[in-house]
Write a structure and sequence with these properties.
The chain contains 5 helices and 8 strands. The chain has 145 residues and is an alpha+beta fold.
């Protein structure tokens, strides 16, 4: 299971060292793509289809399904870890996420999120302030089923 929070620097060419504990779970290569809230997704190649599988059975006629496919698949790249456990984050993804000097890696169960330090600090502040309301929404959604 991918868990924990780690910080690392971003090199001039977009090279970042993926923390060892996360890398061990990801394997030799992974898929990186745009994520939500201006983060990036990093997913083991063999888990990518599981993570995105919910889109497989959606009809092509459903606009939100097409848009989600474009968002995730259209921005996806396969990356390999070098001998030091680093990957190169493509320029367009660095721009999307605002990755400059420092990246924050979050292990969130079945995937890793990569955030710019600035975006993470702001998001984390809001998350901590609103977590009770967010948790209550989860409970409400469970009762709707």
């Amino acid at each position: 299971m991918l868990i924990g929070r780690y910080s690392t620097s971003v090199g001039a060419k977009g090279r970042v060292a993926v923390p060892v504990k996360l890398r061990e779970e990801l394997g030799k290569s992974a898929i990186i793509s745009q994520g939500y809230e201006k983060s990036l997704l990093l997913v083991a190649c063999d888990k990518w289809e599981v993570l995105t599988g919910f889109l497989k059975n959606k009809p092509l006629t459903i606009s939100p399904a097409r848009d989600t496919e474009r968002f995730l698949f259209g921005s996806a790249f396969e990356v390999e870890f070098d001998d030091q456990g680093r990957i190169v984050v493509p320029q367009e993804l660095r721009e999307f996420a605002g990755l400059n000097d420092e990246a924050v890696f979050l292990g969130v169960g079945n995937r890793v999120e990569i955030w710019s330090r600035e975006n993470w600090v702001k998001y984390d502040h809001d998350l901590k302030k609103n977590i009770e309301e967010i948790a209550a929404q989860l409970t409400e959604n469970d009762h709707d089923k």
